[in-house]
Design goal:
single chain, COX5C, mainly alpha, membrane, transmembrane
């Protein structure tokens, strides 16, 4: 039994500060990009609405029947 390998115990070292910062930065950039795309989409829709309104293709006044 002298050749039996010793099994090391897993030692918890705690969170890696550098890893946590990098994860936070990556998550912030990803969520910020999605938020920015959402706002660009709203801006595009608003611009299209006012362009159509200016051309007279749509109206915000309800037509009488």
């Amino acid at each position: 039994m002298a050749n039996v390998p010793k099994i090391g115990k897993a030692i918890y070292k705690g969170p890696s500060i550098v890893k946590e910062i990098l994860y936070g930065i990556a998550l912030g950039i990803a969520v910020g990009g999605l938020w920015k795309m959402h706002h660009w989409n709203n801006q595009r829709r608003t611009k299209e609405f006012y362009d159509l309104l200016e051309k007279g293709e749509i109206s915000v006044v309800a037509e009488d029947e």
